[in-house]
Amino acid sequence: MNTGQTLLVTVGLLLFTIFILTVYRTTSSRFAFAIANETIISGTAIAQSMIDEISQKAFDEKTISGTVSNPDSLTPVKFLGPDAGETDYTKYDDVDDYKGFKKDENLTRLGNFKVWVNVYYVSSTNPDIESLSPTFYKRVNVFVSNNFVTDTIKMYRIISY
């Protein structure tokens, strides 16, 4: 083999290597994109499931066995969260028991999802601002994170009495 043929073979191998690397890069980008999308869909389902579970509970501890006509009769802001004896979330009986709730949801394919919840009173005219006194509206924020996506999934619902 002479120098010209060696040079052609070397250039051919170089072009083939560049082609293979480009195909690999494109394939791995598509795979990462597909995994990220699957993670977002699964994380959204986890958050929605959490909101659905919370929405099925009583509005407040005071509304479980009776009615309340004045918001000042509801649980004071500083006492939102699990009540005495509610050490396991399966015992939660009203919406604000979930304030500060955290759990890990493990999916075989996508790994661990971290879920955390915040609950607070809001006014009917401004549901984005936390109220410093009890109202007939509670905002439930659910956050879900996973290693496959860089941003946290955030969902919320306003629950009214």
In helices, the fraction of residues equals: 25-40%
Q: Give the count of helical stretches.
A: 1
Principal-axis shape: rod-shaped
Overall pLDDT: 90
The major pleated sheet works out as: 4 strands, antiparallel
Number of strands: 4
Q: List unreliable stretches of 5+ residues.
A: none
The rounded Rg comes to 26 Å
Percentage of β-strand residues: 15-25%
The domain count comes to 1
- Secondary-structure class: alpha+beta
Q: What distance separates the N and C termini?
A: 88 Å
Physical arrangement of strands within the biggest beta sheet: 1-2-3-4
Order of helices and strands: HEEEE
Summarize, please.
The chain is an alpha+beta fold. It is built from 1 helix and 4 strands.
Explain what you see.
It is built from 1 helix and 4 strands, in the order H-E-E-E-E. The chain is α+β, with helices and mostly antiparallel strands and 161 residues long. The protein has one domain (3-160). The protein has a 4-stranded antiparallel beta sheet, with helices on one face.
Observed structural traits:
33% helix; 4-stranded antiparallel beta sheet; 161 residues
Topology:
Blueprint: H1 3-55, E1 102-107, E2 111-121, E3 137-145, E4 153-160
Antiparallel strand pairs: 1-2, 2-3, 3-4
